[in-house]
Amino acid sequence: MRKSISLPSVDPFLMWLIATVAAATALPARGMVAGWFGVATDLAIALLFFLHGAKLSRAAVLEGIGNWRLHALVLASTYVLFPLVGLATNALDGWLIDARLGVGLLFLTLLPSTVQSSIAFTALARGNVAGAVCSASLSNLLGIVLTPLLVGVLMRTGGTGALSSWGSVQTIALQLLVPFVGGHLLRPVIGGWVDRNKAILQPVDRSSILLVVYTAFSAAVVNGIWSKVTVPQMGLLLVLSAVILAIVMAANALVARLAGLSREDAIVLLFCGSKKSLVSGVPMAAALFAPATVGVVVLPLMIFHQLQLFTCAALAGRFGREAALRDVPQGADQAASAAAARGLAIPEACMPGVVANLALLGRHADTLLGSKRA
């Protein structure tokens, strides 16, 4: 009997991301349409955080705020590990890569972490969402001071302008934290409905990411980003961005293991500690660099931004599927609890068959994950 060859599966969301980038390249949003997409993106992200706030219990939020070891590791990755890798890459400046692109590579390593995509991917991977909200928001707020400071210390720039990035504080407060807090405060009213309809969170997570990708990439295309760099330079830039991302993600995975972080916290460190914010980076670049160089300086950030989204989408999908397999209820008590959480009741006569089927599903899950259930 001939043995069939199975090809590795591709996360469908990756295809959506690629299609979104292609659409932004071929048909970028311009003028008034770009403004509409910007508003739609803001609303989608606000809805995302409102639902996450309604979903989380107060104990989970307090646990996230108090997890200072996790927050310290994320900040160390963002503002220590990344700049060190950026300085090492900057040694290639001038002889292997264009000097302006080298400046852009170093600049991206000094930026704060993303907020919305880090939390969305953490949610998809079934990580510690409360911890991700706190770590990513703290990274972004501190970045308003730390990024201009690091830029001033590690590179020469034209202009000071750190104050223009104070708009990031309002963005975080109005678009992220206020909806999150509002949803949490309304949890006694809508929490039950949200818990019964958790499936609605995944489309909101993914649609918000797609909107961010399309809106940001459209702006770069409209500004003529593709006409300023040669194809070989683009290829080299992609390789260097991939190397930077791989080094940081591998280091974060190792640190999470050495620090004994839980699976949920390790996911936060991996996603929040390996990303750089395009939303904060573009206005900061405009304030810190001469207008004629801003486009080329932010190009490495644009490429890194897309690369981190593709990579984290694949990882989040994989982690989410593994978590779903591990969560297969076992035994009559777990089966009854899982059914009750969904508003169902298992008849007593059907319980032995349900338990047997769940046990079989659990064995299949163990086989797929290559592990044994304790």
List SSEs in N-to-C order: HHHHHHHHHHHHHHHH
Number of domains: 2
| Global mean pLDDT | 75
Structural Rg: 22 Å
Q: Biggest β-sheet, characterized?
A: none
Number of strands: 0
Amount of helix: over 70%
Q: Describe the oligomeric state of these chains in a short phrase.
A: single chain
Q: Categorize the overall geometry.
A: globular
Q: What structural class do you assign from the helix and strand content?
A: mainly alpha
Question: What CATH architecture of the largest domain would you give?
Answer: Up-down Bundle
pLDDT < 50 stretches: 1-9, 157-169
Reported by name, the CATH topology of the largest domain is Na+/H+ antiporter like fold
Tally of helical segments = 16
Description:
Helices cover 76% and strands 0% of the residues. The chain is mainly α and 374 residues long. It folds into two domains: 12-326, Na+/H+ antiporter like fold (Up-down Bundle), CATH 1.20.1530.20; 331-369. Helix 6 runs parallel beside helix 14, helix 11 runs antiparallel to helix 12 and helix 11 (231-258) packs across helix 14. The longest helix is centred in the last third of the chain and has 36 residues, at 291-326. It is globular, with a radius of gyration of 22 Å. Mean pLDDT is 75; it is low at 1-9 and 157-169.
